[in-house]
Design a protein that fits this description.
Helices cover 50% and strands 11% of the residues. With 270 residues, it is mainly alpha-helical.
Length: 270
C-alpha cells in the first residue's frame, strides 16, 4: 500500500503541477480535474483508485488535459490535430518556466539534460544537420528519431488550381507573420531526423577489490575521527574544484577536442 502511494500522483500533487505549469482554475476547475482522474483510471488504465494517477495514467492525463483545455473557450482548437493541442500545452509550460527564470534545456532538447556538455551536443548536431555523413566522435552514437512537423498548407485532396493553392498558402504565411493567426489548418506529418547522443556506459562489478595480505587485519577497522574528517574534507574540496572548474573553450575548440581519442581529450583540454 505504501509503495502504491509513492508510485502515484494524488490530486493535490497534480494541482501543484498544473499551477507550476501556468494553468489555473479558469483552465481546469477542481471538479473537472477530479472527473478526469476518475475517467482515466476507469477507462484507460483500468485502476479502481479514483483519486491518484500512476505514471501511465499521468501520461494519459497530459493528453486529455491538453484536449480539455484547448478545445474550448478561449482557444477553440478542437478542429486542430490532437498533437497541436498537446504542443500548446507544453508551450504554456515552457512559457511559465521561462518567466520564472528556469533552465530551458528540458524544453529545447530533453536529451541535453544528460551528463554531457550541452553546447558540444548542439554543435555536433549542427554539424550532422549540415553533413549527414559527419563522422561520429568516439564515445558518441548516431540515433534515428521520429518527430512530428506541422505544415499549414492546402490538403492535396481539395480540387483547386495550383495557382489558387499557392496564393492561399502565401496568404496564410502573411497572416501569421503580421497577426500570428493561420487561415489554414495544420497538416501533421512524421519526419525522421538523426541526432548525435553520448554513449552512457554503466559498468557494475561484483568482484571485491583485492586487499594486500598485510592489510587484511586492518580491514573494517574504524579510522581515527581526526583522520576520517581530514580525508572527507580533502575529498569534498577535490569535488568542488573539479565541478567548479570551467574552460573557456569556443565551439570550434570543443569540436576539435571531441574528435580526438577519449584517452587524450582531458590532456588536450588542460
Amino acid at each position: 500500500m505504501l509503495r502504491d502511494k509513492s508510485d502515484t500522483m494524488n490530486m493535490a500533487e497534480i494541482t501543484v503541477f498544473l499551477k507550476d505549469s501556468g494553468f489555473t482554475n479558469k483552465h481546469l476547475t477542481r471538479e473537472e480535474l477530479a472527473a478526469l482522474i476518475r475517467l482515466i483510471n476507469l477507462k484507460k488504465v483500468k485502476r479502481f483508485d479514483l483519486t491518484a494517477l500512476t505514471y501511465q495514467g499521468f501520461l494519459e492525463f497530459v493528453i486529455q488535459a491538453a484536449y480539455f483545455i484547448y478545445s474550448r473557450d478561449p482557444y477553440y482548437m478542437n478542429s486542430h490535430p490532437l498533437v497541436e493541442l498537446v504542443r500548446a500545452f507544453f508551450n504554456q509550460m515552457e512559457k511559465t518556466a521561462r518567466e520564472r527564470g528556469d533552465s530551458m534545456l528540458l524544453f529545447e532538447d530533453p536529451d541535453l539534460t544528460v551528463m554531457a556538455d550541452p553546447d558540444l551536443l548542439k554543435a555536433l548536431n549542427k554539424k550532422l544537420l549540415e553533413n549527414p555523413d559527419y563522422p561520429v566522435p568516439e564515445g558518441f552514437k548516431k540515433v534515428k528519431e521520429k518527430t512530428l512537423v506541422s505544415n499549414y498548407e492546402v490538403p492535396k485532396f481539395i480540387p483547386i488550381k495550383e495557382s489558387t493553392k499557392t496564393a492561399l498558402e502565401v496568404l496564410d504565411d502573411i497572416m501569421f507573420e503580421k497577426l500570428q493567426i493561420h487561415i489554414l489548418e495544420p497538416i501533421v506529418k512524421p519526419k525522421t531526423v538523426y541526432k548525435i547522443r553520448p554513449i552512457i556506459r554503466k559498468e557494475f562489478s561484483d568482484k571485491k577489490t583485492a586487499i594486500p595480505r598485510y592489510l587484511e587485519s586492518l580491514e573494517g577497522r574504524a579510522k581515527p575521527k581526526e583522520l576520517k574528517d581530514k580525508i572527507e574534507a580533502q575529498g569534498i574540496n577535490k569535488l568542488k574544484y573539479f565541478s567548479q572548474r570551467k574552460y573557456n573553450l569556443t565551439e570550434g575548440m570543443k569540436i576539435e577536442i571531441v574528435n580526438q581519442p577519449i584517452v587524450k581529450r582531458a590532456q588536450i583540454q588542460e
